[in-house]
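User: Sequence in, structure out. Go.
Assistant: Echoing your sequence, followed by the structure tokens.
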Amino acid sequence: MNLETPLKIRTLQRKLYCKAKVEPAFRFYLLYDKISRADILFHAYRLARANRGAPGVDGITFAMIEAAGLETWLADLRMDLAAKMYKAAPVRRAMIPKPGGGERPLGIPTPASPRVEIQKQRHLHRGERQNEAMRKPWGVSQPL
């Protein structure tokens, strides 16, 4: 599976990055239209799927999503994002061993969360100013 970022998405990333660097005070208030693009959602799904993570607190696996219809699931997620109604679900906590002994906590999000977070981080958070700008329109109170 080729997980290379498609040229169309890389172009968007580069434009946002350049804008943030040239105009540090610029605020990116209207990014929902970009985050909810079908190509970005599908690419983010592929990246999260390739990570082969465990299900989150809702118990939904990638296999369950694909059995029920990936296109439908992505379309529903897209509608929630476009309507600005998406809200991240709680994260499941698991303890994993540390190399030097002991354990550390690991947060396992629901299947929708990594896709949306990957979009925000990989596709739209280019540059420190963009990261700060994303917090206001998304209403995110937790670190991205």
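User: And one key feature?
Assistant: Residues 123-144 have pLDDT under 50 and may be disordered.
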